[in-house]
Amino acid sequence: METAAMVCKTALLLLVFIAAASNASTDMQTYIVHMDKSKMTASGQSPGNSKEWYVSVIESLTELSDEEERESEQQASPQLIHVYTRAISGFAAKLSTKQLESLKRLDGFLSASPDEMLSLHTTRSPQFLGLEPGKGLWSAFNLKSDVIIGVVDSGIWPEHVSFNDQGMPPVPTRWKGACEEGTKFSKSNCNRKLIGARAFFQGYEAVVGRINETKDYRSARDVEGHGTHTASTAAGNLVANASIFGLAKGLAGGLRYTSRIAAYKACWSQGCVSSDILAAIDQAISDGVDVLSLSLGGSAKPYYSDNIAIGAFHAIKNGVFVSCSAGNSGPSTSTVSNTAPWIMTVAASYLDRSFETTVTLGDGQTFEGSSLYVGKATKKLPLVYANSAGDVLASYCIDGSLKKKIVKRKIVVCQRGINGRAAKGEQVKLAGGAGMIMINTEREGEELFADAHILPATSLGATAGKAIKKYLNSTKKPTAAIAFKGTVYGKPAPLMAAFSSRGPNEVGPDLIKPDVTAPGMNILAAWPPLTSPTQLKSDKRSVLFNVVSGTSMSCPHVSGLAALLKSVHKDWSPAAIKSALMTTAYVHDNMNRQIMDVAFSNTTMATPFAFGSGHVDPEKASDPGLIYDITPEDYQNYLCTLNYSASQIALFTGKGFTCPKTSTLQPGDLNYPSFAVNFKRNSKTNSVTFKRTVTHVGIPGVTYVVQKNEPTGVSMVIEPQILKFEKPGQKLSYKITFAQNKEPTVQDSSFGSVAWVYSDTYHVRSSIAVTWT
């Protein structure tokens, strides 16, 4: 009995110990920690020994003097994950709550934020953008200089023809990067085109556990396809006769196709961890990239708690242009992400190319859709709405929801949402269906994605969806047929994509975001041959190019354009390149109409909250006439106007910076190439004056005259109205006063523009958005 009691007691103690250890483990979380670099030198450490200093900091956390805090047998050891030297001064570490509290008491601590999981947000684009081989920006002279584009994404497929280095000169001697070895990736996979490849997974594995190397590559090799697609969009080689199943056939190439590429894999099957993204940015700055392209992000947040914003700030301080996707949460308002003023935030719009289908109903109605399916047209077949073909979720055609006896040999109507678009077709096929029609909700409007379906299928807009539902309810034997018309050119474009995230900018209402729009809908670009075009398990097809949509696709377009401009204007700052792209952007389509918004039917005009300054025009951007330049010091003073605390500003500037005490600056005075005006509703004294300074970069001896398009309900007074420049490099300033001249309507916003014009040569335009709150 006594022995049994002892065994019982021992077992109980063991359970308590296990529970305590488990609780200690679950208490551990990854934090990104910002430290004051000056304290490192004060402690006798040199800046080059930052890792040693951070290791000593981590070790000190386990040497607690207080017995109540020690609990060494129950407290897991802290784990150093990343050390940052360029993007920020600090590190990422896995810490317990008590270890974090101890860290906060150390001299040199600035702040700590929990790590978070972010998400990934590509033959026709160059021609649509006006780029022609041998001419303008694509002339041999402009393309011969070395520009390095760093792509932070899901990796790269190095053997792809888009990354062949045939005919390329040696790697620039200034390059400090490396080709890291890992799962099915060796140093020989890099070449004179793909000059660097690294993988960042320590933060990711701290959250989800070790990467399963049977499903993903624990290296820079890409299994998702996303990174290969974006890298080739920005800088892939010219490839003749590129297509997917013969569709979109033509000459494929990146916007700056002679650029070098450095791939930084920070995104994995479950997402991208911010500590890894920050490590990738940090490394890219050290390696020597000229342009950084990040087609990823999360929800918008204050800049001091946005690690991409902090990392990007340190990149532009080092002369690196940073382009980010605006996000795919449209058309809801105030959904735009990556909104820091030093980031180029890119929205997505349509090309003039489509992949058309025609759906014909039994009563003769026809509707235009979109698909990458290349088989024969279907016969007239019975039509069934999925909500009558299974359980409560069957209308979305989700996994296992369809009943075979109801859908067999029929065309099934599926509602968009919940699961993937191609995955709906897979479910229809598995249930014996003969085809699929995917219809939009009101929220998606007339958006038409082209997908590589595994059975005859097409997408249709919300208007067609309503008509089909009405038809299904009007007859006992509904039928339909789907015909596939292939690649069609000459469509109205650009057209704003419904999914593209919108303003106004909640984090910085003094800035219009996004900044510009670029092609992001149904974009053809490189794809890993071992990854099927739909990424469905049942899809065994292999393609070298795939059509994908998202602001992830528009972002690398602008990254490539920035690299082109950097070739022509080697002395331009990141802000100067950004200004040139913004002030030369256009707001009319190829039918000479205002750019339309597909989210609200094809007859509703888009606004700057959808397209920013407009659609990029690279050839005009190469000779903009005037630029709105911004220095890192200007951005620092802008942060002061946001009433951030000294410790919050120190995340960008370091501890040595102090805000000007006598400054009369306001957020809207940042020398930004657009204007966001915020008025109070029900106020009779709404008026504000902003100052801007422009730098002449065009031909000498030029006089600009101002042209204005006043927003509804607002008057504008611009002083002076003439700017006379004698030589390039000269700077002149002007002020613009916005005043409410009548009560705002039910609308919360109105829009206009101001432009400085010289003859037919230069038209330097800035978007204006006035918002009443």
Automatic annotation (TrEMBL):
SUPFAM superfamilies recorded: Subtilisin-like
Domain of life from the UniProt record: Eukaryota
N-terminal signal peptide: 1-24
Domain (Peptidase S8/S53) ranges: 145-592
GO terms for biological process, alphabetical: proteolysis
This protein's name: Subtilisin-like protease SBT1.1
UniProt keyword Cytoplasm, yes or no: no
A GO molecular-function annotation: serine-type endopeptidase activity
Active site: 153 (charge relay system), 226 (charge relay system), 552 (charge relay system)
Coiled coil: none
Residue ranges constituting the Subtilisin-like protease fibronectin type-III domain according to the UniProt record: 669-770
Organism: Hibiscus trionum (Flower of an hour)
Annotated ranges, domain PA: 381-468
Family: Belongs to the peptidase S8 family.
Inhibitor I9 domain location: 30-121
The entry's keywords: Glycoprotein, Hydrolase, Protease, Serine protease, Signal
